[in-house]
Amino acid sequence: MKEHYTLRLNVMTGTPEYRMNAVGYGFQPLDQAARNTMALKALKAGVESWDKDLNRYIDSNLIPKYYPMEDYIKHLPKWNGKHDYVGELARRVKTDNPYWEHDFHTWMLSMVAQWLGKDRQHGNAIVPLLIGPQGSGKTTFCKRLLPEYLQVYFNDRLSMKNDNDIFLAMSGYALINIDEFDAMSKSQQPILKYLISKHDIKFRPPYGRVMEERQRFASFIATTNNRRPLTDPTGSRRFICVYADEIDNTGIVNHNQLYAQLNAELEQGRRYWFEDEENARIMQQNEAFQQVNSYEQMIALTFMSPEETSEEAAYVSLQLIMKKLEKLFPTFTIAKGTDVEVGKRLNKMGYEHKRTNKGSVFKVEEI
Predict the structure, then answer these.
(1) Could you write out the DSSP letters of every residue in 21-54?
(2) DSSP state of 289
(3) Which of 289, 328, 323 is nearest to 97 (CA)?
(4) What distance lies between CA 338 and its chain's CA centroid?
(5) Mind listing the pLDDT tens digit for each residue in 125-147?
(6) CA 314, 320, 325, 327 torsion: positive or negative?
């Protein structure tokens, strides 16, 4: 076996892999067809062995373990020490959030620390949540965070409905993108908040007989078109919400220097976790992305208060006011009687109004 093959156990996929000891061969999954071929070649070479002998060897601790992410990081060239590749990548997201570059850098450091198993007690418990219109490049940006070589460890199709799928993904992928985050139900957001704080995971895999403990490698990122996707105020510190009308996905990303920089910074002792004051600041920032359900809150977040509304402000019809609220708040839906309810709230809040031959109009001024 050692003369003809190199074997290893991929700890992320849980699958043995093999490579022919000849020029031009790369590692491949050691499936049943490959095992049978090995056994037949051994018999042909005069080695008296059974299939069970081969399988016993392959499925033993004699096979070295292979950590794909650690292997990638450890074989990178040295960072040149000058150019900030992480900041350059963060600035591709066109946002007015002044903390985005700093927070994204810390999250990237935490992701690499997760891959390397630097903290055996905590997981990467922060999730960047990219918010923007359809076609702004959010999903493409997430996918490009990993080099082509490691795209097999990127997942953007994870179902949050099955615990086993989630646990397997957390140990089998390096980066998980929760695409269309707003599609997640209210009950699933707290579950995600709990899961992302875990470093190691315990579960019984499909067809398994006993509970297994596996190292978590995955970090999370998420995308949505919804301007207010957060439903759990207590868990908002877990998300770095950032709105961007556009993301620049042109040109190449120098992944080798990007991750060489992150690895060098970790070796230099740079902090890869968020301090309490940063968590408090993130929660405050995320108030603007919290789901709103009452008409009064929606109106107050969209229009100046009656006292602050200028004398020159125009009178706006209820229909236009409702269309504005519908655009900003996914929970606002226009149905029969909605105009009456919104009109009552505007009157109660003190907005000037008058009746016209086309219906009620209110003096409002957008924030």
Answers:
(1) SSTT---EE--HHHHHHHHHHHHHTT----HHHH
(2) G
(3) 289
(4) 36
(5) 899 999 999 899 999 999 999 99
(6) negative
SS3 137: coil
Residue appearing with tokens 């957060």: 230
The angle formed by the CA atoms of residues 319, 323 and 324, to the nearest 5 degrees, is 120
Using CA atoms, how far apart are residues 344 and 346, in angstroms rounded to an integer?
6
Over the stretch 25-51, which tens digit does the pLDDT of each residue have? 889 999 999 999 999 998 888 888 788
Q: Is 98 exposed, middle or buried (0-12, 13-18, 19+ CB in 10 A)?
A: exposed
10-residue mean pLDDT profile of the chain (367 residues): values are 92 93 88 92 86 88 94 95 96 96 97 88 87 93 96 89 81 92 73 75 72 86 89 78 95 97 96 93 89 80 87 88 86 82 87 85 89
Distance from first CA to last CA of the chain, Å, rounded? 72
Q: Which two tokens stand for residue 56?
A: 């016993």
**Cβ neighbours of residue 153 under 8 Å, at least 6 residues apart?**
12, 68, 69, 146, 172, 173, 174, 175, 217
Tokens (6 digits) for 289: 């992305």
In this structure, the dihedral spanned by the alpha carbons of residues 139, 142, 143 and 145, taken in order and rounded to 10 degrees, is 160
Neighbours of 307 (CB within 10 A): 6
- Alpha helices, H only, 173-254: 188-195
Q: Residue 277: how many CB atoms within 10 A of its CB?
A: 8
Distance CA 119, CA 342 (A): 51
Q: At what angle do helices 338-349 and 295-302 cross, to 10 degrees?
A: 60
Give the Cα separation of 151 and 157 in Å (integer). 13
Length of the chain: 367
| Tens digit of each residue's pLDDT (9 = 90 or more) over 49-90 | 788 888 998 989 999 999 999 999 999 999 988 899 999 999
Tell me if residue 101 falls in helix, strand or coil: helix
Distances, alpha carbon 201 to alpha carbons 123, 127, 216, in Å: 10, 18, 7
